[in-house]
Specification:
The complex is a heterodimer.
Chain A: H1 9-25, H2 29-57, E1 60-61, E2 73-74, H3 77-83, H4 86-120, H5 126-134, H6 141-152, H7 158-167, H8 180-190, H9 192-204, H10 208-216, H11 221-249, H12 253-259, H13 267-275, H14 284-315, H15 334-362, H16 378-385, H17 387-420, H18 426-435, H19 441-454, H20 463-470, H21 474-487, H22 490-498, H23 503-532, H24 535-539, H25 548-557, H26 561-585
Antiparallel strand pairs in A: 1-2
Helix pairs in contact in A: 2-17, 2-18, 2-19, 3-14, 4-8, 4-9, 4-11, 6-8, 6-12, 6-15, 8-12, 9-11, 10-11, 11-14, 13-14, 14-19, 15-26, 16-26, 17-18, 17-20, 17-21, 17-23, 18-21, 19-20, 21-23, 22-23, 23-26, 25-26
Chain B: E1 2-13, E2 16-28, E3 33-37, H1 44-52, E4 59-64, E5 67-71, E6 76-77, E7 85-88, H2 100-109, H3 117-130, H4 146-158, E8 164-168, H5 176-193, E9 196-201, H6 204-210, E10 213-218, E11 221-226, H7 228-233, H8 238-243, E12 248-256, E13 262-266, E14 271-275, E15 286-291, E16 297-299, E17 308-318, E18 323-329, E19 332-338, E20 349-353, E21 360-363, H9 365-371
Parallel strand pairs in B: 3-9, 3-10, 7-8, 8-9
Antiparallel strand pairs in B: 1-2, 1-4, 4-5, 5-6, 10-11, 12-13, 12-15, 13-14, 14-17, 15-21, 16-20, 17-18, 17-20, 18-19
The chains are: A mainly alpha, B alpha+beta.
């Protein structure tokens, strides 16, 4: 028998509790808790702040008042005005559904074919093809949408002019970008690179042994595809499909640039026009009321996405040696495959790029040798002499860079808190950060507008307001950092504290250096997203905080085609150096050069 | 019966042509267990994958049960799904979208013509019973532990009684304790199903314990082939001796050349040993005498006969069932396994007693090089 008497049950329990508590707090210290608290507060502010504002605004009126102005009160008028309007059910909802379903179908068919060709067949020049497909990812949606007008406008569009000449037609047409079909085409093709990126990752992550096992079990290649390849890949394919639906649903550029002239309204443009009516004052309450179900749809799609991602992750099994997956021999399908990729590259990347640069010199004129002599650099000289251009360029870099820094920083704090502490409620932080993915940009813009209009600190209309409004996209950085942090064994941090490093020292000298690649990747991705952003700065626009994408749209709307094309070209030129960073830090992780 | 003759497999890589397998031949009699053993990159897995039909050989011939399944020079290549083999993959490759029973039934379900549903079920359950997994038939594949996945993979590989069973390092993903347990289990299972088995591993104890015959591979070629005891006791060359069982190597010179009764003297007058001289070596040649740690008994005073070498004890490491002793013979380190009751002191002199029957002689490396 032991000679040492054990303390009584109650005392023992108290000691255990104290020890557990002390363990939780060990090493972090006040500095650590301050950092975590600040990070958590910032995440809540950037995501929940605008959303709460939106929610309350929907119930505040009368409609031409700011929600918390003197004279405003609680009301259901906004909801009534929006939801008793037949127009919502006869045009807005059907339009949104057709637009979304159509675009996602186009995107998915093209992106899946491309991803399959690049990842699973013996297609030649696969790495080159990979880069070409991803290039449009860097070009803002607004630029792509406007280039589609250059190509397919009923009167002046290049393709229409050529078709008329070839077919001997008169008048306008035969194709018209200003139609539901045109919207679907432009949006569908525009989203291909992003979905391609996700799908090719899903195709690549499959353990080739799964197919080989089927093969050695006696199943023919076709049976293997049907019974093993497709079912295993299904969740990994459905997740990007859901995400594409979410992104298309929240699309604002295409519906504005192409849908508005065609008088086709969807949810996102409806919100915008409530804020920018032709005659009346902005109707904040009604805009918020339209936004609510839109937001709910976004969050529901997000939950669905999460479900498939989890399933896809549970399907990832231990991979064996790095044997390459079986590549399907294209054989006589080689030529059609190359043709398909060429046609996509032509319409998805090359032609829009060419027409943009061409229009910046020659306006709407079709390329020909005679016209070359009429080349005009006016678009650029005007631009470079225009202080507004330099202001917009500066603003764009500040907003994209500033929000990328803020979000990456908060993302690290959140990821570390979620993975490394026992903090109660850390899953709430996880959820909030994930929620940000389901918030449409229109709503983020609207919500920030309401928030900063109501704040008495005169921030509305400044560049800072944009930086803060952009900073809600927490999910990108939290997810990336979290994945990287999971690869870093907690013992590396414990080793640092055993060696005498305080919490901040450990973070600074061990965690951050190890996380560096994923931090850079997160910064670059967020920078690109910020650089492309059009919706939020359009909603929050003022003369002082114009960014390049908004400037391009304003020039285009004002009939200054050449200048609009010149701004668009400059955006692409600014963004090209980022490709190299992207290739180095993001794609290198997939084992590509 | 499985027969592999002159198998070759080369790849073109950005760095040029790589010959992974350079002419491997072996024969596995029906029902027998054959192991390819070697370090990573020696070509053993490539050989196995060629037998499975997952890779196309670039030369040689593979015959399974009398049918030639691969012979590049005649453009014969039977794809994996027509070969009637069963394979356990290193990663197990359990299909995550099926449950345990569906995984095991699969080889029967895809068979043409498909057997009746009841028969498929009965045979799959029988295979699961064999591996002790019949209780988990309806469990989702994503909820299996490593050992369970391994059993399911094995059941799936044997369910249709294939002509050849292929095992690609099936134990390497398990932790040490489970690996040992599964080794015995696998050994019993393979014996019970009595299927011609080709096993690939880099673990010598697996290879020695389980196989009827072992082929030690190095650099795309078979270095030695034979029953485990022969390969272990009579390693054909230095590579095999070093790879199997961590042999000791001591430099010596032949001072009496007399066939099986030759005498090799160790450097610095440390002693000598009677050895069986291989052909081509004679008096005055430099050699290496190779012996196993378990054959290196110690004595703490000099004897007056041959077959001993003077050393000093550098380190003693008590390991429970035995004491591992590191000795210095000049600058060379020699390992010896002692019974734990043996008392010794670090730094003391000791004489290693050698049993001539358990020593092998190879030409010294520099000597061999000068001959080439």
């Amino acid at each position: 028998m032991s000679q040492i008497s054990l303390p009584s049950g109650a005392v023992q329990r108290a000691r255990i509790k104290r020890a557990a508590k002390a363990e939780k707090r060990a090493d972090i210290g006040w500095a650590g808790w301050t950092v975590i608290a600040l990070g958590a507060a910032a995440a809540c502010y950037f995501i929940l702040g605008p959303l709460l504002m939106l929610l309350t605004t929907a119930f505040r009126g009368p409609q031409d008042f700011l929600p918390f102005e003197d004279g405003a009160g609680w009301t259901l008028d906004n909801l009534a005005a929006v939801y008793f309007d037949r127009n919502l059910y006869t045009t807005i909802i059907p339009n949104t559904l057709i637009f979304t379903a159509g675009s996602v179908t186009v995107t998915f068919l093209i992106a899946f074919t491309l991803a399959w060709l690049v990842e699973r067949t013996d297609l030649p020049f696969r790495n080159g093809v990979y880069t070409i497909i991803l290039f449009p990812l860097l070009v803002p949606g607004i630029v792509l949408s406007i280039t589609w007008i250059f190509l397919l406008a009923p009167n002046t569009g290049w393709i229409n002019v050529i078709l008329r000449t070839l077919l001997g037609l008169e008048d306008s047409g035969p194709l018209n970008i200003f139609s539901m079909g045109g919207m679907i085409l432009a949006q569908g093709i525009g989203l291909v690179p992003f979905v391609f990126l996700l799908l090719s990752a899903a195709l690549r992550s499959m353990n080739p042994s799964l197919e080989e096992a089927s093969n050695t079990a006696g199943a023919s290649p076709f049976t293997t595809i049907r019974r093993v390849t497709l079912p295993v890949l299904l969740p990994g394919l459905l997740a990007p499909l859901i995400l594409a639906t979410l992104i298309t649903l929240e699309q604002f550029e295409t519906p504005l640039v192409i849908g508005f002239p065609a008088r086709i309204n969807v949810f996102s443009t409806r919100i915008f026009f409530e804020l920018n009516p032709d005659t009346d004052l902005p109707a904040y309450g009604r805009a918020a009321a339209v936004a609510l179900p839109f937001l709910i749809c976004g969050v529901l799609l997000l939950l669905l996405y999460n479900h498939f991602i989890r399933r896809a992750e549970s399907f990832v099994t231990v991979t064996g040696k790095g044997f390459r997956p079986m590549r399907f021999a294209l054989g006589r399908w080689r030529l059609p495959a190359i043709l398909f990729i060429s046609v996509y590259a032509l319409f998805g990347a090359l032609l829009p790029g060419f027409v943009l640069v061409w229009a910046s010199f020659f306006g709407y004129s079709l390329p020909s040798f005679e016209i070359l002599s009429t080349i005009s650099f006016a678009g650029y000289t005007d631009l470079f002499n225009n202080p507004k251009f330099w202001l917009a360029a500066r603003n764009t870099f500040i907003v994209a860079g500033g929000s990328a820094v803020i979000v990456t920083t908060i993302g690290v704090i959140l990821a570390w808190t979620i993975l490394r502490t026992q903090l109660m409620g850390r899953w709430v932080l996880d959820f909030i950060s994930f929620l940000s993915l389901g918030i449409p940009a229109v709503i983020a813009g609207l919500a920030s507008m309401l928030l900063y209009l109501s704040m008495p600190i005169g921030i509305y209309g400044t560049v800072l307001a944009l930086v803060l409004a952009y900073s809600y996209r927490m999910a990108v950085s939290t997810r990336l950092t979290r994945a990287a942090l999971m690869q870093i064994h907690a013992e590396l941090e414990e080793a640092s504290s055993v060696a005498g490093g305080q919490w901040l020292t450990t973070i600074r000298r061990v965690v951050l250096p190890l996380l560096r690649p994923s931090l850079v990747a997160s910064f670059i991705l967020l920078f690109i997203i910020g650089f492309r952003e059009f919706t939020i700065p359009t909603i929050l626009q003022s003369p002082d905080n114009t960014v390049l994408s908004v400037m391009m749209w304003q020039a285009f709307q004002g009939g200054k085609t050449t200048q609009a094309a010149a701004v668009g070209t400059m955006i692409v030129i600014f963004v090209i150096p980022i490709i190299f960073g992207l290739r180095r830090f993001v794609l290198a992780r997939d084992g590509r050069d | 019966m499985l027969k592999v003759e002159g198998l070759e497999r080369s790849y073109t890589t950005p760095d040029g042509l790589v010959h992974a397998v350079k002419g491997v031949s072996f024969e596995v009699p029906t029902g027998s267990f054959f192991t390819l053993l070697g370090p990573s990159g020696c070509g053993k897995t490539t050989t196995l994958r060629c037998v499975a039909g997952l890779e196309q050989p670039t030369g040689g011939r593979i015959t399974i049960a009398g049918t030639v399944v691969a012979q590049p020079e005649n453009d014969i290549f039977v794809p994996a799904f027509k070969r009637d083999v069963g394979m356990v993959f290193q990663s197990y490759a359990i299909w995550p979208h099926m449950n345990v029973l569906e995984n095991v039934s699969y080889p029967l379900v895809v068979r043409k013509p498909r057997p009746p549903r009841d028969e498929i079920r009965d045979r799959a359950m029988e295979a699961l019973r064999l591996v002790g997994m019949d209780g988990l038939a309806n469990r989702s594949a994503t909820k299996l532990s490593g050992g369970q996945q391994q059993r399911v993979a094995f059941a799936r590989a044997i369910v249709r009684h294939p002509k050849v069973l292929l095992l690609d390092e099936p134990l390497s993903n398990l932790d040490a304790k489970l690996r040992e347990q599964m080794r015995y289990e696998l050994q019993e299972l393979v014996a019970r199903v009595a299927i011609t088995t080709l096993y690939v591993t880099h673990d010598q104890s697996e290879a020695l314990a389980m196989s009827d015959n072992v082929a030690v591979m190095s650099d795309g070629l078979i270095a030695q082939m034979g029953p485990p005891r022969t390969v272990y006791n009579r390693p054909a060359n230095e590579f095999v001796a070093g790879f199997l069982g961590g042999a000791n190597f001591l430099d010596a010179t032949i001072i009496e050349a007399d066939g099986a009764n030759s005498l090799a003297a160790f450097d610095e007058d440390r002693g000598s040993v009677r050895v069986n001289l291989p052909a081509g070596l004679g008096k005055g040649d430099r050699v290496q005498v190779v012996f196993r740690p378990e054959d290196a008994a110690l004595r703490f005073s000099a004897g007056n006969n041959d077959n001993q070498v003077r050393a000093s004890i550098a380190r003693l490491s008590f390991q429970g069932g035995l004491t591992e002793c590191h000795l210095k013979v000049g600058d060379t380190l020699v390992r010896s396994m002692l019974h734990p009751s043996v008392q010794a002191d670090t730094g003391a002199d000791a004489w290693i007693e050698l049993n001539p029957a358990r020593c092998t002689v190879y030409p010294a490396p520099d000597h061999r090089r000068s001959q080439m």
